[in-house]
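> example.struct
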């Protein structure tokens, strides 16, 4: 099988033809004349054809050289145009942008952010779905997935960029405190009624951070499981059990006494919002711009404005 032609060699050949000299081609391509001459010789050897008749005073295309020039030039121009278009597409904020955000907390924190981004970039075609798939959603031909996590995040081939930290706390209704008392150790939650998740946060055990900054997990007695922070908050107020909620989400209930905050030596691991994407090297400008925009907006957000989002665990 004959080896494929080198596009760079063809580019050099076309430059020699159009500049009518090896010296002119070397200046146009910013490469030594000796390299130009070697490139043409290698191309002729590969084709087993003479492309250019050389003399000390002039050069002339052979019939084979003329045929190669007329066929190769439009091909290289098309390739260069394609390269330019691909580069511009990578840089411009236009075209489809497919993202996924988590249910409930996603629309509350990011609904206005994504809408504002869309208004600033009307050439984008934004498609946004809400679910709790996390890493899995990147397999569904999406450009960006926003996930909520607590504690140590699993290893993944995806790139994760931190967006915001959401402080959390343990709370319970006065009726629960009256019935079971105030626990003094986090290990007691293994026997106490707790509100946990079904699949959100992967149904992970409750996670805490000790004074050394290390994570501690407790497999709590989860007799009431929900994938909704709002439902977890309402269940806690109703006296179903102990719950982990975001501090700002449950602050109104703490203020009016419907919930009581319980503190321990270890602090509750906060919720973390991450932006996930597949490849850092070829991250399109539109995806990078949205991540930067989210990070900037979320850094200015007061979680007091999202009280209706009770992010439970």
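> example.seq
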């Amino acid at each position: 099988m004959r080896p494929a032609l080198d596009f760079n060699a063809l580019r050099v050949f076309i430059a020699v033809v159009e500049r009518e000299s090896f010296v002119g081609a070397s200046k146009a391509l910013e490469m030594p004349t000796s390299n130009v001459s070697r490139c043409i010789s290698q191309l002729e050897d590969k084709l087993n054809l003479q492309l250019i008749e050389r003399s000390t005073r002039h050069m002339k295309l052979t019939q084979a050289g003329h045929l190669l020039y007329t066929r190769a030039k439009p091909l290289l121009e098309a390739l260069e145009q394609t390269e330019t278009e691909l580069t511009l597409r990578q840089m411009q904020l236009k075209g489809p942008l497919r993202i996924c955000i988590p249910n409930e907390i996603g629309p509350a924190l990011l609904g206005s952010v994504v809408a504002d981004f869309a208004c600033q970039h009307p050439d984008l075609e934004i498609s946004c779905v809400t679910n709790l798939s996390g890493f899995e959603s990147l397999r569904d031909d999406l450009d960006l997935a926003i996930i909520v996590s607590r504690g140590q995040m699993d290893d993944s081939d995806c790139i994760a960029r931190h967006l915001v930290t959401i402080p959390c706390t343990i709370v319970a209704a006065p009726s629960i405190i009256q019935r079971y008392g105030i626990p003094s150790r986090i290990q007691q939650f293994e026997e106490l009624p707790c509100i946990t998740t079904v699949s959100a946060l992967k149904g992970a055990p409750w996670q805490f951070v000790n004074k050394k900054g290390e994570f501690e997990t407790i497999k709590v007695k989860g007799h009431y499981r929900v994938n909704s922070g709002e439902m977890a908050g309402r269940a806690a107020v109703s006296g179903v059990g102990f719950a982990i909620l975001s501090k700002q989400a449950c602050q109104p209930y703490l203020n009016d006494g419907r919930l009581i905050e319980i503190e321990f030596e270890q602090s509750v691991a906060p919720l973390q919002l991450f932006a996930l994407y597949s490849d850092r090297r070829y991250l399109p400008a539109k995806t990078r711009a949205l991540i930067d925009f989210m990070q900037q907006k979320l850094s200015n957000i007061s979680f007091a404005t999202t009280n209706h989002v009770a992010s439970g665990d």
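> remarks
The CA atoms of residues 30 and 89 lie 28 Å apart.
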